[in-house]
Amino acid sequence: MSNGSGVNAESATGLPTDRLIAELEEELTDFWRRGRIRARDRSHQIDPDLDPSCYPLLMSVARYAPVAMSQLVGALGVDKSTVTRQVDAVERLGLVVRRPDPGDARARVIELTDQGRSRIDAVYATEIPRWRSQLAQWDPADIRTLIDLLHRLGVGLGHRE
């Protein structure tokens, strides 16, 4: 099968060639780089003092709250001490709060504060129209396919539950 450039995209066994895999790695690397830039920009929109490394944690809390520290460790793929430091940092900024876990008196769950929710909603209010504009010419089925393929790749690489 040709990829349009005259280079075979698959070997005789139907498996992707090394070059095709390398191209995928290059595109993903560039995509992640742009994602880090967006995360930095969005974190500073939320709070100028928010460390961009805390942005994924904050988005996970926004998505799953109330969320236990152990869930954040698993969702973010970092160790407990990193999650603790990041929760401490966003708590000092008034964006999250720790509360007793109703299911385990020894544990705490993390939730957004009203201020945290308000600031994240403000970022969403500016970002969703940008996404909408970028994807306006896409067929909704293509967007769904992209979502499904990204999920499948993440699961296949073992980085997603």
Automatic annotation (TrEMBL):
SMART domains cross-referenced by the UniProt entry: HTH_MARR
Entry-linked PROSITE patterns: HTH_MARR_2 (PS50995)
Short name of one Pfam family: MarR_2
Top-level lineage group: Bacteria
Boundaries of every HTH marR-type domain copy: 21-155
InterPro entries assigned: HTH_MarR-typ, MarR/SlyA-like, WH-like_DNA-bd_sf, WH_DNA-bd_sf
UniProt protein name: MarR family transcriptional regulator
Species name: Gordonia defluvii
Lineage: Bacteria, Bacillati, Actinomycetota, Actinomycetes, Mycobacteriales
